[in-house]
Amino acid sequence: MPVAGWLTDPLVLARFVHFAACSLAAGTAAFAVLAVDGKNDTFARLMRRWRAIICVAAAIAALSGACWLLLVAAGILDRPIAEALADGDLRSVATGTQFGQFALARLALAALLVAPVWPSRLRLAVSLALIVLIAPAGHAGAQPGPWGDVHLAADAIHLAAAGAWLGGLPALALLLGAARRDPGALAAAAARTTARFSLLGIACVALLTASGIANSWFLLSGPGDLITTPYGKVLALKIALFAAMLSIAAANRFYLTPRLADPAAMRALQRNCLAELGLGLAVVFIAAVLGTLAPAAHRHGNTEIPSDAALVHIHADAVMADVTVAPGRVGRADVRIHLSSENLADFSARAVHLALRPPEADRPAVASDATLAAGAVWTVSGIELPRPGIWTVVLSIAPQQGAIVELDGPIVISD
Questions:
Q1: Does 3.40.50.300 match the CATH number of domain 310-413?
Q2: Which residues pair with 357 in a beta bridge?
Q3: What are the two backbone dihedrals, phi and then psi, of residue 325, each rounded to the nearest 5 degrees?
Q4: 399 in Cβ contact with 318 (< 8 Å)
Q5: End-to-end CA distance of the chain
Q6: Residue 260 in 3-state DSSP?
Q7: How big is the chain by its Cα radius of gyration, in Å?
Q8: Longest CA pairwise span in the chain (Å)
Q9: Domain residue limits, the chain
């Protein structure tokens, strides 16, 4: 999709606003707790402004998170948002999928942050939890097993560090502006606070770099993907913007911060903070785009999928499966199951059993043994799907050696 398409894509925009709002809440809370040094009347007024920023950011996070959930639910259900709301199917997505459950958790945390009554450290803990819980909604949340846990932890660290650094820049800019208008004791306190925020920024940059390398290891098949794949090219742009942010941050840390007694240096630092913030928002937008693209290292061996088919990809430690139901609607359908190992090689099995569980728990499943068609592709022909909704695909896979592997995942059957 070209850049113009990203700028008008509702899903990208909802993700961007949600990421930015969560970062602002977490960064402002981190700045107030970890960086602020000194107490006077002006700091008290700034504290009230920072609390207000957190409340507004949390409200925006809640609204954008709800929009994100609605857009994903409409995509899963393959119907307009209004129809999904009217039919009550949104509840099944919100409560029956991992994405929906974490989206509801973030909505609850954002609602807590809207109230400005929490102690500063508790507000920081809640705001960090808010941004960290974005991780399971991304590519890291779809990877199973111990390596999936490592990927999820790296993504969570990446989000927390980005929020603490980028989200703290507006609070720093406000402080520098207030210090320029009211020099004296506030200017000295602002200089100490800036130095402490600089140290926090260094720690965040180190965490961002380490966790970014870890994430790239999981999402890229090699450095060449940065110039040969759509995902890699967008990621390369994000890295370039991050490098530009680092150059400004380095100038701030090593040149301007030690000279804050000079009003010109303070003015320049405030200007650089705003420039750094602008680049950071561009990085956040690119991150929102990346979440909608297939990672370069996550290409699966599907043949061409019919336009009316329903598809689910299911991971397990030993095997993963692409399950296609065509047509993906009520009536008679054929099922294609392609098995592969984590390195994308075909997975050899002795037998595969398919069960499709209907949305109602008290209804019997549609079950059949699959037939080996070719290589690692198994098929089931002529199954009857009597009703629409979110069904559950259950596969029992008997490998050539070892115990049977169970896989399950949701699939949407339309009218």
A1: no
A2: 392
A3: -110, 115
A4: yes
A5: 30
A6: coil
A7: 25
A8: 81
A9: 3-290, 310-413
Question: If DSSP codes are grouped into helix, strand and coil, which group holds residue 288?
Answer: helix
Structure tokens at 393: 């695909």
What stretch of H or E contains 353? Answer: strand 349-357
pLDDT tens, residue by residue, 31-88: 999 988 666 566 788 888 999 999 999 999 999 999 999 888 877 666 677 776 766 6
pTM of the predicted structure, to 2 decimals:
0.76
Tokens at 362, concatenated: 């008290």
Cβ neighbours of residue 70 closer than 8 Å, sequence gap 6 or more: 81, 84, 85, 90
- Strands 371-374, 366-369: pairing is unpaired
Of 287, 140, 297, 143, the closest CA to residue 220 belongs to: 297
CB–CB of 237/229 below 8 Å? no
Q: Which two tokens stand for residue 65?
A: 């998170």
The answer to whether 11 and 292 have CB atoms below 8 angstroms apart is yes
Residue whose C-alpha is closest to residue 100's, from 373, 390, 414: 390
